[in-house]
Design brief:
single chain; 200 residues; alpha/beta; D-Maltodextrin-Binding Protein, domain 2
Length: 200
């Protein structure tokens, strides 16, 4: 969150927020319907320039992108309560040829089993919801006290129907937990949202 205001709550009435993500847009609207949410296009430098020029009171950028580009900037992290990330956000996957044992061995030393478990749950969630770029949805999984916890949401474009649930379960079957969360969201009202969005 790049702004002189530390959080969405601190923004004045009718403030302008820049994002081109439907996932972020719906979560902002759920929290603050009074805000004016405007499209934010261009590379990271262009987006930051638009903010500095005063076109926006705040913009939302991925922290991973800022770090990867080595951009030094004062910014604030939005809480998971404010902003559930995209499925797999921040995880890095590396493809390797099946027969390349040397590279497989090297990659094994940096492989994170925790990340693997969490991403399996998140991807199963996305697959079950048949999610695409035109559907505002997100999920975040983490491990706490040897339990896998995943929170996810689905919303219509105006956040008038916004459904958010959390599931908790065993580490041994992360895909099942992700599917369960998605199916429960579909029953809660997500199925209707998907039908409408894909019909449009």
């Amino acid at each position: 969150w790049v702004s002189k205001y530390r959080s969405l709550e601190e923004l004045p009435q009718g403030a302008r927020v820049g994002t081109s993500s439907l996932r972020r847009l719906s979560q902002i609207k759920k929290k603050r319907k009074d805000l004016e949410i405007l499209p934010l296009r261009g590379n990271v430098d262009t987006r930051l320039r638009k903010w500095k020029e005063g076109q926006f009171d705040g913009i939302i950028l991925a922290e991973a992108g800022l770090k990867r580009l080595g951009i030094k900037l004062n910014y604030f992290r939005l809480s998971l309560e404010d902003m559930i990330p995209a499925v797999g956000q921040g995880a890095l996957g590396i493809e390797v040829r099946e027969d390349n044992q040397l590279v497989k061995k090297l990659l094994k030393s940096i492989h994170s089993k925790t990340t693997e478990i969490c991403i399996k749950a998140e991807r199963a969630f996305l697959k079950t919801l048949r999610g695409g770029c035109q559907v505002p949805l997100g999920a975040y999984a983490f491990i706490n006290n040897k339990k896998l916890i995943i929170t996810g949401f689905i919303s219509d474009l105006n956040a008038e129907r916004f459904y958010k649930l959390t599931e908790e379960g065993d580490l041994k079957n992360p895909e099942y937990l992700g599917e369960t969360l998605a199916k429960n969201l579909l029953k809660t009202g997500g199925e209707e949202i998907l039908k409408e969005l894909y019909r449009e």
